[in-house]
Amino acid sequence: MQSPKPRRKAGPTTNGLDSAEKLDELLISSAICNGEDLGPFVRKTFGTGKPETLLHHLKLFSRSKESEIEEVCKAHYQDFIHAVDDLKSLLSDVESLKSALSDSNSKLQSVAAPLLSSLDSLVEAGTVSNNVDLAIGAVKHCVRVAEIASRANRHLQGGSFYMALKCVELIESELLEKTPSSTLKRMIEKRIPEIRGYVKRRVSKELGDWLVEIRVVCRNLGQLAIGEASSSRQREEEVRIKQKEAECVYALNEEDIDGDEYESSDDDAFDLTPLYRAYHIHQTLSLEDSFKQYYFDNRELQLKSDSQVSSMTPFLESHQTFFAQIAGFFIVEDRVLRTGGGLISKMEVEFLWDLAVTNMCAVLEDQFSRMQTANHLLLIKDYVSLLGVSLRRYGYTVDPLLEVLSKHRDKYHELLLSDCRTQMAEALSADKFEQMLMKKEYEYSMNVLSFQLQTSEIAPAFPYIAPFSTAVPDCCRIVRSFVEDSVSFMSHGGQLDFYDVVKKYLDRLLGEVLDEALLKLISSSVHVVSQAMQVAANMAVFERACDFFFRHAAQLSGVPLRMAERGRRHFPLTKSQNAAEETLSGLLKKKIDGFMILVENVNWTSDDVPQGGNEYMNEVIIYLETLVSTAQQILPAKVLKRVLRDVIAHISERIFGTLCGDLVKRLSMAAIKGLDMDVQLLDSFTEQLTSLLTEKEANEMKTAFVGIRQMINLLLSSHPEKFLNPVIRERSYHALDNRKVATVSEKLRDPSDSIFGTFGARGSRQNPKNKSLDTLIKRLRDVS
């Protein structure tokens, strides 16, 4: 039942009170009925000092509510009575329901008892099932961990360390924390560091073995790279030689110089797998930085060790291994830089290269300063240049090494000049001063054609007797070897235009070494005419050989021949050439002097003119004709002409000296005519040299005895005093000296014209010629 909804109650009415009190009573009743706050009424009542009024109003309100309360209670009581009656009527129904429920409960319990036991069994089975599921999951987890661990073991046994580490990383990051078995977990936690340590030790050992093996590999690799560079250079030289021989330029075939093949052969020559494997493993172990530093430090130590030169082995024997080791080292480092994935940086490689270059430069400076053999310097220089070619392909800067080589250029050439000086002295001392005999064509090619000494393009018949001796080709071979060694040292050294340097040292070789050696040979070993003639012939051949030397140097230096010809200098062996000709002339003059001794047998006062000239002149002419027939076979015409001119001039001077000397006291006209015949013999001799001299050259040859000819002409003339006429003298007697003319004229004067001769022919008439001669003598004495 629902209680009636409360209503807002109106306060009780009062009769007999005044309106103000009624209003207050109504307000208080309304406030109490509405549940409002009575505070304002209390304050107001105490403010007016009439609390009794408030109490009165409250009591009135209380009494008015008592009746109302009573009415409400009566109403509620009647409802309660009705409810009790209703409950009493339901009590029997409840009892019957209770008994029915009890019966149903008994039946339910009797029926549900087996079900409850089954339920308990079901719950217990569910719990067991959950536990079994958890156990199965734990077992599966442990089995997976065990399987991965077993897989890691197999990888370790198989050497697949990276896969083993990945298995360990998988167990540690994903499975270890979830492993239910504390025993297995502790075991795994213990084994993981051991596995990593084992892997690190194994790869470190492999890396150590690789670092040991790579040194041998580097040496072989460097030798292979330098050998390839040498082969490539040889192919280039062969092609260049063919180009020069053909006097044309043509394109090289690709197979002549194949740079890709050269590079691939180096790339396939070594294996970096152990290094990269160790690097990968250390990356997996988060030890990348420490491994990089470890690798760099070890390689730096290896480089320093490789850069040391053993004092037990001569550098000449060990230099190839020394430089090949360093070349291989940086070929390997270049590969590691390009394919190592940041294992080594470019800056670190440059640091190692700068260290190696510094060490190599120091070694070269030290070793070059000790070497005293040019060939040793050349061997080392060639190998260093090949090293530069090999490493320049990989981007390494080799300029400091080339600067060291260039720095010792002068020392090398000085040593080379010294070696050539010794060789030339030996070659010249072994010369027999005999014309060289060549029996086979290859000998002709080796000794003549190879130095372009031939005077004709037509091959001679064999056996062939050359105009020079064995000293010429021997010295030519020495000079050619000098040129080739000089070019070899200067080439491939960073300097492109080096012909001027080669030419400078070639000038020194010819002008100092060879020229001095020839001068020494001439002064010490040439004693007879045949030797001097052979040396003079050799000098003419050397003149052609020098042209070949400069052309050969230009060709090897890559300079066009026209430019080389433009810069040609004078013949560098001029001193020895002049000395050879002077020596030949001197020996010939001595030989002539031997014949001129016969002048003592001439009767200078005879009245009979000798038929066919005097004996001494015939002997001289016979010797000169024999000399010319022999000399024409080996001496060039210009040399022979100079020598003959000098000898004939010497003959003229000897005749003049005899006339002016004490040997001749008096001269007869018949003796003068005999001298005239002697001079005619000389004149005829020069005219017979038509195959050797031109008309102009024959006239020049006659000037060698023009003095004696003019003297004879003067003495044979009918008016000798015309010598005093400047015009006639300049035209006909320009070669005569006043003193000599006076001396010879004195000896020719007739003895009857002297002071004592006048006593026997005082009244006779003087010869006009003698008178003219006396006038000439008197005038010449006055002038002197």
From TrEMBL:
GO terms for biological process: acceptance of pollen; intracellular protein transport; pollen germination; pollen tube growth; vesicle tethering involved in exocytosis. It is found in: Cytoplasm, Cytosol. One of its GO terms (cellular component) is cytosol. This is Exocyst complex component. Belongs to the SEC15 family. InterPro entries: EXOC6/Sec15, EXOC6/Sec15_C, EXOC6/Sec15_C_dom1, EXOC6_Sec15_N, EXOC6PINT-1/Sec15/Tip20_C_dom2. PANTHER family: EXOCYST COMPLEX COMPONENT SEC15B (PTHR12702:SF1), SEC15 (PTHR12702). The keyword Lipoprotein does not apply.
